[in-house]
Specification:
Layout lengths: L1 E3 L2 E3 L7 E4 L2 E7 L10 E7 L4 E5 L5 E8 L1 E6 L5 E4 L3 E4 L5 E5 L5 E8 L5 H5 L4 E3 L5
Antiparallel strand pairs: 1-2, 3-4, 3-13, 4-5, 5-12, 6-11, 7-10, 7-12, 8-9, 8-11
Length: 136
């Protein structure tokens, strides 16, 4: 991690790995890491055939960007939409959604919460294993 005045550059090697049975999250920018309160940002890797269950974020919008792989994105309890690299889903506050990897390899995503804060729930999940950078 490098600091430049109030600015910060991070990589996944600098932050905790939030490991679930469906994949791994690295929050690269949030209040814990950079002090950011207006937005949080991270990467997600979903394993083949895995995904996260239907949920919503009552206090934050979410953006999901598909970096590589393919998956089904359910939005607002509608029929899942097949998404591939380059697709971007914007999910307003309170809208239920889920993402499932339908490909043969990992599904890589970038996610942002606006405002920051919704990511804190991930750390509180009984299903998470938090692995600090120095323990990988």
């Amino acid at each position: 991690m490098e600091h430049f005045g109030d600015c910060t550059i991070t990589t996944s090697a600098d932050v905790d790995s939030l490991v679930f049975d469906w994949g791994t999250i690295h929050m690269l920018c949030d209040e814990r890491v950079t002090g950011a309160k207006s937005i949080s940002f991270g990467t997600v890797v979903l394993e083949p055939g895995k995904g996260h269950v239907r949920h919503n974020h009552p206090t934050a919008d979410e953006i999901i960007f598909f970096i590589s792989g393919e998956g089904n994105q359910m939005l607002d309890d509608g029929e899942p939409v097949q998404c591939k690299a380059g697709a971007c889903a914007w999910i307003p506050k309170g809208v239920y959604h889920s993402t499932v990897n339908t490909g043969a390899g990992p599904l890589h995503l970038a996610v942002a919460y606006i405002p920051a804060g919704a990511e804190a729930v991930l750390r509180e999940s009984p299903d998470v294993k938090i692995v600090p950078p120095d323990q990988r």
